[in-house]
Amino acid sequence: MEQKRILIIDDEPNLLAAMDRSLGRKGFRVMTAPNGQNGITLAKQRHPDLIILDLSMPGMGGEEVAIRLKDDPDTANIPIIFLTGLFSQEQQDQRGHKVGGQVFLAKPVESQNLINVINEVLSQPIAS
Asked: What's the pTM value of the predicted model, to 2 decimals?
């Protein structure tokens, strides 16, 4: 089975390192970007199967990054999982991890929960 490529865009180096390790152990090929602009560039160059995107970053925030990715035909169909500290794990557990059709996970994200959501998102047909 082909390894799925995951791009993680987040400004927290410790989080990037931890997610890189845990996803790598699960057989994913992980790329990381420390900011939105690097993330957009990597997404265009490497065409990941999935992007994990922090909403709150200095400079270009996750919302703007997502809009730019969705507006570009090269990256428009790459699914995005948003990471946010704007709501708690308890709130996520109460209302699920989808808001307005988008997938959100509360920080800090538990490793197995992240894997489950990644597998769920990757198993869905690509919307055109």
From this structure: 0.88
